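Quick entry, no commentary yet.
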Amino acid sequence: MPKLRHIALATQDPVKTAAFYKQAFGFKEVGRAGSPDNPKAIAWGFYLSDGTLNLAILKFQNVDQLGRGLDYVGIHHFGVLVDDLDAYMRKLEALGASCFMKQDANTANAFYETKFRGPDGVVFDVSDRPWVGAAPEHAAAAEVKETEPAG
């Protein structure tokens, strides 16, 4: 069975939001995305983990993937880890989900995900590679190694 392994929150203040979830629940910072100084980055922020799930805390800068504006705050999308990406892509499209962003799967060691919209417009990712800090499909919670703390 595919596993829920990723939730992305859109925020206007990734530093404050990440610090809150780290303090409130003991989540570990396991990575960073983009940079506030790089206007070409789709988003910037932090990846947190409880050892099973990757929680992305992101400020979207130049691409409105939801159609709600770049100032939108809230749950942005979720991600599902699957064992056969091509098979699930076919299945999702047959069910009427529209694929709007497919990453280059030919990059050997790079992480990638493919984005879809469900029947109600909710955005979700599918990937056959776990997000940073997320447990593999058939494993217990991963050992979480914290990166440098957020500013």
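second:
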Amino acid sequence: MVAWSLAGLAWAETPCGPTLDSSLRPRTVLRIQSLPAGLEIVGTDQAAIHVSCTSSDEDEAQHIRIQFHGKQDDETLTIKGNMHKGNNVKIRIEVPRKTSLRVEMSAGDVKVEEIEGDKDINLYAGQITISSTRPLDYRSVDVSVSIGSVNAPAYGAQKGGFFRSIRKKTADGEYSLHAHVMTGEIDLLGRSANATTD
């Protein structure tokens, strides 16, 4: 892994295989831009980001680049490369529990576990799963699919078909959630305080 830092700026890069590690403060906004993959984003009690990547094709894994860059409280993680064989790329990203996420990916699966910050996740095709063992603390929820299904048991919602959405507001919530899939599925798993329909 290649890494450097200067006056609050950070930059690190590695191919798929070696892990990427860097400091990351809680409450940072982390932007994730990824090639099609299986992303697992997990909250921890560490003030750091830890990224591991596996691929079914070792040769093509060397052409995948994982880059972490930005400045304090506003960082970007980029996963890019040429995938000629449609190899199965899986990426696990561990971040502080209180991290705000902005995720953009064309296709694949995004799993978010135990993250307490704001979330804005957009996927063209695939599945988004957001789960927490703690009560969901959202002041606003805006979740939608153009074709597919939205499942949110905590809000009493299970919908499938065309242009399905859930929009809720909770007066005493702290965070905001926006998630959209063009074609696929969104699952919001966890317990919620009382919510009212927008």
